Amino acid sequence: MEITYSFDQIPTARQVIELYNASGLPRPTHDEKRIQQMYENSNLVVTAWDGEQLVGVSRCITDWVWSCYLADLAVSPDYKKSGIGKRLIELTKEKVGKQTMVLLLSVPTAMEYYPKVGFSKEDRSFIMYREK
Fold first, then answer.
1. Beta strands 44-50 and 53-62: pairing type?
2. At what angle do helices 13-23 and 32-40 cross, to 10 degrees?
3. Is residue 123 in some structural domain?
4. In the predicted model, what is the mean pLDDT of residues 78-104?
5. Range of 85's domain?
6. What CA–CA distance (Å, rounded) separates 60 from 51?
7. Dihedral of alpha carbons 109, 97, 36, 19, sign
8. Across the chain, what does the average pLDDT equal?
9. What CA–CA distance (Å, rounded) separates 123 from 120?
10. Binning pLDDT at 50, 70 and 90, where does residue 110 land?
11. Is 44:73 a contact under the CB 8 Å cutoff?
């Protein structure tokens, strides 16, 4: 298994949907157009590939100098615990640079993961939820 990482290879909405469904990431995978728009409107996407198969993705929105919101981090369950998620985060951080913080909202099942890969837990965030 040789995993390659890319900043230039944007996956199709169908590839993203398959990855999100397999990894259990709760996203609107029933709405292919919305998934496509999510990627079209993101300005930093790092992908992990095993040949032609998408096995991981980090999707972000950033201003490149202050903050980077890591909106999605997904790894195929067949590749969990292989370091792909950690590497996607490292590449994201390298790309945005040392002046830029990386922040995210974790799904409940990943709360134990993020401190292991360098994130600090914060208790001072606020959210206005989307309408369904």
1. antiparallel
2. 100
3. no
4. 95
5. 3-116
6. 23
7. negative
8. 93
9. 10
10. confident
11. no
Q: Inform me whether the pLDDT recorded for 122 exceeds 90.
A: no
| DSSP codes of every residue in 54-121 | EEEEEEEEE-SSSEEEEEEEEE-GGGTTSSHHHHHHHHHHHHH-TT-EEE----GGGTTHHHHTTPPP
User: What whole-number distance in Å separates Cα of residue 98 and Cα of residue 86?
Assistant: 17
CATH value at residue 53:
3.40.630.30
CB atoms within 10 A of CB 41: 10
Q: Tell me if 30 is assigned to some domain.
A: yes
* Total structural domains within the chain: 1
Q: Nearest CA to 86 among 53, 45, 49, 119?
A: 119
Compute the C-alpha angle 80/85/88, nearest 5°. 150
CA distance 61 to 28: 18
CA dihedral 21, 27, 32, 34 (to 10 degrees): -170
